[in-house]
Design a protein that fits this description.
This protein is of the alpha/beta class. It has one domain (about 1-175): Rossmann fold. The protein is about 40% helix and about 10% strand. The protein has six helices and four strands; from the N terminus they run E-H-E-H-E-H-H-H-E-H. It has helices spanning about 20-45, 70-90, 110, 115-120, 135-145, 165-175; strands at about 1-5, 55, 95-100, 155-160. Strands 1-2-3-4 form a four-stranded parallel beta sheet, with helices on both faces. Helix 1 (about 20-45) runs parallel beside helix 2 (about 70-90). The longest helix is centred in the N-terminal third of the chain and has 26 residues, at about 20-45.
Length: about 200
Amino acid sequence: MCWSTRRRHPTFALAAEASPRFHESVIQFNLLAPLHLAQEANRHVKRQDGGRVILFFGSVSALRPSPGTAYGAAKAGALRLVQSLAVEWAPRVRLAAVSPGPALTQQAGLHFGDADGVASVANTTPLGRLAAPADIGAACVSLASPRGAYVSGTNLVYMAEPNGRRFWLRPMRSMLAFPDKCTVDRSCWASPPYEAGERINPPPS
């Protein structure tokens, strides 16, 4: 069982400007939802003879300062949740997390801009490229397989370590480029419980 929050859900907003509703939604989706799903998964997988593994997707945003304060805080809570549940549900069920760095997915442009922006971020990594989804999938398969049988309560940080400040400023600048009138009917932000046209960042008073 694997839980990921990497879909079209609003995760970035300046902390000083985002509404309480925005922060609550980010925390609910990235911390509470994985907990509820893990509870249900535990009821089933603990009765199995094998494959008793629950994997969470974390984020490097949980491990270092990054734009989108509520998102990083929620992901940090999810990583601690993995550690706590690994102790509580041992030895019948193993839990682990995979925290990918920047990946070349279909939504990479939402974070890094155009192809030049993606290439610019990729060039900050020692390997000169972003992770491919297959790279991350291989890590998950390894953790869930018998080769990961002694791994529980662990977070696998899966990335080529970037050049610190230069790396993190790239996506921040791209996300700040969105107009401040962006509403949730834009595909980059569309997700319940928001209503179409609702501002995620209230205008300055």
